[in-house]
UniProtKB/TrEMBL annotation:
Similarity comment text for this entry: Belongs to the cytochrome P450 family.
Membrane spanning residue stretches: 24-44
Entry cofactors: heme
PROSITE patterns (alphabetical): CYTOCHROME_P450
InterPro entries linked to this entry: Cyt_P450, Cyt_P450_CS, Cyt_P450_E_grp-I, Cyt_P450_sf, Cytochrome_P450_Monoox
Protein name: Cytochrome P450
Protein's UniProt keywords contain Cell inner membrane: no
Length: 565
């Protein structure tokens, strides 16, 4: 009331107050100060809350066994940037904080099968026992791949390997029928055809009698198989065909791994300024053009087939001569000349039935190509190299080949032959036990998870380590030795009580969808090689140890000599 009467009695003062009030409201400095007065306390409270939260996060992580870590850098300085040296260093810490820290390899007591590493400010939690790995792999919640996989999305998009959540679940459900054993039987002709080419190349090497690097050959062979199975296209890489595409695939794998293991290259500007981004883009363009050309060609063939059938023709499919690129020629055909189903045909069928775009198809074809060639090349290569050091094991494998194919040693392998290749399968499985193609299986911990009495907080990266799980003395009588008897029928039955003791293809909801395809390819490849040749490895096994890159690869190739039987 006082101010009302005051301004009523002194109108000049009222005008002055209004003028000051207007000046006050129009002053940006006043507004800034007011905002800071409100924001700064809230910001301080948020920072304090985040610091407490991070301190609790660090406290929970540091409860886990593992090497000491520095602030910010973590344990990074304990590891060499060189792949081979860092592999030895990682193996040292595995043995120190797992087997030795848990009461020794004989007892396996005390240690929960968990080890942590700080790589910079990021904790990596490694699970090396079946019990602890099971909690990660069988979870329907922890299905997100680590951040590093997102670096593959420029190449593979968000296909089955890199997607998560609802999209991954939808894709997995759609694609699972594509790997049914009845469909896999259609690929037997592809495996036979390409393995015959491999045998021809090996026969040339047998004539020369000189040592050679089998790894280069098996990578091209695996690429030929996966290209024909995925896209119905004969790449002929083993015979020197399509060098631009073959080189692009090789460079993309190398560049992808380089970026994944080099955090300073993760920011896009640094990636491009380093020159690697441009190189990546050029090779990606070569791969994409090839894949899109094959997809377009296959769609034309399917449209032509439908048109012919609709026009009442006799059902004989004439070869499509519209494509002027031999690489895009449909080669996987049955006796009638009708193109047999490949993975691309299945995807095109899904496109007609579901909302599946051309880009969706490209993503899954590229994913199948990426996952399906290096992994098989690794497993077949390490098997051949390992058997080249073990004449007794190789002799037993030769005996199985002679028993199965003695009267017709040159005939193609049929689907019915596969279950009878018991010792061949034992050799493959033993190789993948000691030298798993995928040595680490990654997951993001998206919510706090209780495992073996420890709380693994959200924000950690989980790495399941088949390399160590497969050396658990409770399940393998000679864990560090190559012995196919680990997979005799008796030992497999005994180990069935713990299915997570053997994880060459992962396990749980995100296990490898193509494991039966890979297993069939491996057995046919080895059967074709060993029923014809004797292998002699010419370098010590430690001279070419497995390096964990995108897949396990030899540090110095697979140098062997080969003899005709």
């Amino acid at each position: 009331m006082f101010w009302f009467h005051f301004f009523e009695r002194f109108p000049e003062s009222s005008r002055l107050w209004k003028r000051c009030d207007k000046t006050f409201l129009m002053n940006p400095l006043i507004w800034l100060i007011s905002a800071l007065v409100l924001i700064i306390p809230a910001l301080i409270r948020h920072i304090v809350w985040r610091c407490r939260q991070y301190r609790e996060f660090v406290r929970l992580v540091d409860k886990l066994p593992g090497p000491s870590a520095l602030p910010i850098l973590g344990s990074a300085l304990k590891f060499s940037p060189d792949s081979e040296k860092s592999t030895y260093q990682m193996e040292y810490y595995f043995r120190k904080y797992t087997f030795e820290g848990g009461g020794g390899p004989d007892t396996m007591k005390g240690n929960p099968g968990i080890m942590r590493l700080w790589i910079g400010p990021k904790p990596i939690v490694i699970f090396w026992k079946p019990e602890s790995a099971k909690a990660i792999l069988e979870s329907n919640v922890l299905i997100t791949k680590p951040f590093e996989y997102s670096l593959l999305q420029d190449w593979l998009g968000t296909g089955l390997l890199t997607s998560t959540g609802e999209k991954w679940q939808r894709r997995r459900k759609l694609l699972t029928p594509a790997f049914h054993f009845k469909i896999l039987a259609n690929f037997i002709q592809v495996f036979n055809r390409q393995s015959n080419v491999l045998v021809e190349k090996l026969d040339e090497c047998a004539q020369n009698e000189y040592p050679f690097d089998f790894y280069r050959m098996i990578k091209l062979y695996a690429l030929d198989i996966i290209c024909e199975a995925a896209m119905g296209t004969q790449l002929n890489a083993l015979r020197g065909g399509n060098p631009k595409y073959v080189e692009a695939v090789k460079k993309m794998c190398e560049l992808s791994f380089l970026r994944m293991r080099s955090p300073w290259l993760w920011p896009a500007p640094v990636w491009w300024l380093s020159g690697k981004g441009g190189e990546f883009a050029r090779n990606l363009r070569a791969i994409t053009e090839f894949t899109q050309g094959v997809i377009a060609c296959r769609k034309r063939e399917r449209a032509q087939t439908r048109q012919q059938n609709g026009d009442g023709m006799d059902g004989t499919n004439h070869q499509n001569d519209s494509n002027n690129n031999n690489a895009n020629k449909s080669a996987n055909a049955d006796e009638s000349g009708k193109p047999a189903a490949c993975f691309l045909d299945i995807l095109l069928g899904l496109q007609e039935q579901n909302n599946f775009s051309d880009e969706d198809i490209r993503e899954e074809v590229e994913t199948f190509m990426f996952e399906g060639h290096d992994t098989v090349a690794s497993s077949v290569g390490f098997t051949v190299f390992s058997l080249g050091h073990r004449p007794a094991v190789q002799a037993r494998l030769h005996a199985e080949m002679d028993h199965l194919f003695g009267e017709y040693p040159e005939r193609d392998i049929t689907y019915d032959d596969l279950p009878r290749m018991r010792y061949t399968e034992q050799c493959v499985r033993e190789t993948m036990r000691l030298l798993p193609s995928v040595p680490l299986i990654g997951r993001d911990i998206t919510e706090a998870t209780e495992i073996c009495g420890f709380t693994i907080p959200a924000g950690c990266t989980a790495m399941v380590a088949p390399f160590s799980i497969h050396r658990d003395k409770r399940y393998y009588h000679a864990p560090d030795d190559y012995d196919p008897e680990h997979f005799s029928e008796e030992n497999v039955l005994r180990r069935n009580k713990e299915p997570f003791a053997y994880l060459p293809f992962s396990a749980g909801p995100r296990n490898c969808i193509g494991q039966k395809f890979a297993g069939t390819e491996q057995k046919i490849s080895l059967a074709k090689i060993f029923r014809r040749f004797r292998i002699i490895s010419v370098q010590h096994e430690l001279e070419s140890r497995g390096l964990p890159e995108l897949v396990l690869k030899p540090s110095d190739g697979f140098w062997i000599r080969i003899e005709r039987r």
